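Might you be able to review the protein record set out just below?
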Amino acid sequence: MERTLRNALKIAAAVFTVAAVSAAATETLANSPATIPFIPTGISQSASSVGFADSDVYGMNADDINHTFDLMSATGVRTVRIIIPWAGIEGTQGSFNWGQVDTVVGAANARHMSVVGAIVATPAWAVAPGAIPISSPPASAAVYGDFAGAVAAHYRGRVDAYEIWNEPNAVMSWTSGPQGPEPAVYADMLKASYPKIKAADRGAVVIGGVVGAVVSFGSLTLDPVTFIQRMYAAGAAGSFDALSFHPYHYNLKFSAGAGVPNSPLSQTDGIHAAMAANGDGGKKIWATEYGEPNSAVDEATQADYIRDFLAKWRTLPYAGPSYIYTTRDRVTGSSNPEESIGVYRSDWTPKPAQAAVKAMA
């Protein structure tokens, strides 16, 4: 839960920093039909596919973006998960600035990496009156869907898959009021986004859920299995091609979670059971974030956790690609897990975890 909060704050800071120096450009959006069949894309959906999830690149200058992607390439990965922040692109309704995300996507494309984009961060004009920008859901699922369609049109052939939001089962990423996470509202976002994305790029993979490995705690968090079950109950079936999960646990190796209630491994099994119960047993679960910070363990143990996760994940029959969070520390040695979770140190030198990822990539 702590990692979820820090990630939400980091996204907000990056969006506001980039938006402050961005100029606006406009782009039009076409209407889309209600239903378009899924056509497989070029992105590997194999459980043996390993990439990096890196939200920090959005806030970097061009030199650091390219250096970071060079580190990814040196590690042998061929896919990356980035953020596509609505608030940073359409800060004013109808005016679009794609520049920073274009730079990030271009760096990935130049290195022949496939791209997953998480469409996050509601701009101030699109939240409900009095709601908090960035972390609050949009007031209108249809307006979010329109933006998702615009993103898919702009990045057709350059971005391969799209995640709808990030960790909507935790209030830190879904700040909607005292009721906490809202699976039915999230289902509406999926239903609004799926046809718009498919109309713009029929081959794009649309990924739903994007849930974090939390336990239910009042109105603050809703465990991922219950969230997915309620999402289905609200009619989400047919509005995604895969689901994704972030199976973090800083004190338990992923493989050690078998039979442990609420462990990430048990939750992964529970998510798939919910999918199977709703006719989606053949769809994959992607692990679009997993990592282990050096604020919790030493560098050798970090490598062991990552090695264990990658080895166990690819044995699951319903598993899709996995993405290690993240490429590089912001502050090596920090007690803040968000700053010490990279597989490279902040001075750009590799940790043992880099070799662990490279061996499995």
About this structure: Residues 2-20 form the longest helix (19 residues).
